[in-house]
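EI: anyone free to look at a 135-residue chain?
SC: sure, send it
EI:
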Amino acid sequence: MSDKSPSERFLTSEILKVERRWFAFRLIATVGGYIALTLILNAIRTTIPVWLLWPMIIVQFGLYFYIFGLSEARASQCGLKRIVGVILFTVLAILGRVNDWELLIIPAVVATMLFVSARTKKLSAEGQAILPNKV
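SC: here you go
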Protein backbone atom coordinates (compact mmCIF):
# COMPACT_ATOMS: atom_id res chain seq x y z
CA MET A 1 0.00 0.00 0.00
CA SER A 2 1.17 3.52 -0.69
CA ASP A 3 2.64 5.56 2.13
CA LYS A 4 1.20 8.75 0.67
CA SER A 5 -1.89 10.34 2.12
CA PRO A 6 -4.93 10.86 -0.11
CA SER A 7 -4.20 14.56 -0.35
CA GLU A 8 -0.62 13.90 -1.50
CA ARG A 9 -1.81 11.40 -4.12
CA PHE A 10 -4.37 13.93 -5.33
CA LEU A 11 -1.79 16.72 -5.52
CA THR A 12 0.66 14.45 -7.31
CA SER A 13 -1.90 13.41 -9.90
CA GLU A 14 -3.00 17.01 -10.49
CA ILE A 15 0.60 18.23 -10.86
CA LEU A 16 1.29 15.39 -13.32
CA LYS A 17 -1.77 16.41 -15.37
CA VAL A 18 -0.62 20.03 -15.47
CA GLU A 19 2.92 19.05 -16.47
CA ARG A 20 1.66 16.76 -19.25
CA ARG A 21 -0.75 19.35 -20.61
CA TRP A 22 1.83 22.15 -20.46
CA PHE A 23 4.37 20.00 -22.31
CA ALA A 24 1.79 18.99 -24.94
CA PHE A 25 0.73 22.61 -25.43
CA ARG A 26 4.30 23.86 -25.83
CA LEU A 27 5.23 21.04 -28.21
CA ILE A 28 2.14 21.36 -30.39
CA ALA A 29 2.35 25.17 -30.44
CA THR A 30 6.01 24.99 -31.47
CA VAL A 31 5.27 22.47 -34.23
CA GLY A 32 2.34 24.62 -35.39
CA GLY A 33 4.56 27.70 -35.52
CA TYR A 34 7.22 25.76 -37.42
CA ILE A 35 4.69 24.46 -39.95
CA ALA A 36 3.12 27.90 -40.41
CA LEU A 37 6.48 29.60 -40.91
CA THR A 38 7.60 26.86 -43.32
CA LEU A 39 4.46 27.26 -45.42
CA ILE A 40 4.83 31.05 -45.44
CA LEU A 41 8.48 30.79 -46.45
CA ASN A 42 7.69 28.32 -49.23
CA ALA A 43 5.03 30.68 -50.60
CA ILE A 44 7.09 33.90 -50.53
CA ARG A 45 10.70 32.70 -50.80
CA THR A 46 11.18 33.92 -54.40
CA THR A 47 9.61 37.35 -53.96
CA ILE A 48 10.73 38.42 -50.49
CA PRO A 49 13.82 40.63 -50.02
CA VAL A 50 16.89 38.80 -48.71
CA TRP A 51 17.14 41.06 -45.65
CA LEU A 52 13.73 39.79 -44.53
CA LEU A 53 14.16 36.20 -45.72
CA TRP A 54 17.19 35.31 -43.60
CA PRO A 55 15.75 36.36 -40.22
CA MET A 56 12.66 34.26 -41.00
CA ILE A 57 14.87 31.27 -41.88
CA ILE A 58 16.79 31.72 -38.61
CA VAL A 59 13.52 31.75 -36.66
CA GLN A 60 12.42 28.63 -38.55
CA PHE A 61 15.65 26.82 -37.60
CA GLY A 62 15.20 27.96 -34.01
CA LEU A 63 11.70 26.49 -33.90
CA TYR A 64 12.92 23.28 -35.52
CA PHE A 65 15.66 22.74 -32.96
CA TYR A 66 13.38 23.84 -30.11
CA ILE A 67 11.06 20.92 -30.95
CA PHE A 68 13.92 18.50 -30.28
CA GLY A 69 15.25 20.42 -27.28
CA LEU A 70 11.83 20.46 -25.67
CA SER A 71 11.42 16.75 -26.37
CA GLU A 72 14.84 15.98 -24.89
CA ALA A 73 14.08 17.95 -21.73
CA ARG A 74 10.79 16.11 -21.21
CA ALA A 75 12.43 12.75 -21.97
CA SER A 76 15.01 13.40 -19.27
CA GLN A 77 12.19 14.31 -16.84
CA CYS A 78 10.53 11.00 -17.74
CA GLY A 79 13.64 9.04 -16.84
CA LEU A 80 15.85 8.93 -19.94
CA LYS A 81 19.49 9.56 -19.11
CA ARG A 82 20.51 13.08 -20.13
CA ILE A 83 23.47 12.11 -22.35
CA VAL A 84 21.42 9.44 -24.15
CA GLY A 85 18.64 11.96 -24.78
CA VAL A 86 21.04 14.62 -26.08
CA ILE A 87 22.66 12.16 -28.48
CA LEU A 88 19.33 10.67 -29.60
CA PHE A 89 17.57 13.97 -30.25
CA THR A 90 20.65 15.52 -31.88
CA VAL A 91 20.84 12.61 -34.32
CA LEU A 92 17.11 12.91 -35.03
CA ALA A 93 17.40 16.66 -35.59
CA ILE A 94 20.26 16.19 -38.02
CA LEU A 95 18.49 13.36 -39.85
CA GLY A 96 15.39 15.53 -40.14
CA ARG A 97 17.34 18.05 -42.19
CA VAL A 98 18.21 15.39 -44.80
CA ASN A 99 15.98 15.89 -47.85
CA ASP A 100 12.40 15.94 -46.57
CA TRP A 101 12.80 13.48 -43.70
CA GLU A 102 11.44 16.10 -41.32
CA LEU A 103 8.00 15.19 -42.68
CA LEU A 104 8.50 11.77 -41.07
CA ILE A 105 10.72 12.54 -38.09
CA ILE A 106 8.82 15.48 -36.56
CA PRO A 107 5.45 13.68 -36.37
CA ALA A 108 7.17 10.55 -35.05
CA VAL A 109 8.98 12.52 -32.33
CA VAL A 110 5.83 14.44 -31.38
CA ALA A 111 3.66 11.30 -31.19
CA THR A 112 6.30 9.38 -29.26
CA MET A 113 6.94 12.18 -26.79
CA LEU A 114 3.24 12.79 -26.17
CA PHE A 115 2.82 9.05 -25.52
CA VAL A 116 5.86 8.85 -23.23
CA SER A 117 4.78 12.00 -21.41
CA ALA A 118 1.28 10.60 -20.86
CA ARG A 119 2.67 7.35 -19.47
CA THR A 120 5.17 8.83 -17.00
CA LYS A 121 4.45 8.91 -13.30
CA LYS A 122 7.50 11.01 -12.35
CA LEU A 123 7.16 14.59 -11.23
CA SER A 124 9.64 17.18 -12.38
CA ALA A 125 11.80 18.95 -9.80
CA GLU A 126 9.42 21.93 -9.95
CA GLY A 127 6.43 19.65 -9.42
CA GLN A 128 8.06 17.97 -6.42
CA ALA A 129 8.78 21.37 -4.90
CA ILE A 130 5.04 22.09 -4.84
CA LEU A 131 4.28 19.03 -2.72
CA PRO A 132 4.22 19.57 1.03
CA ASN A 133 7.24 18.32 2.97
CA LYS A 134 6.76 15.47 5.39
CA VAL A 135 7.58 16.21 9.00
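EI: The two ends are 20 Å apart (CA to CA).
SC: 👍
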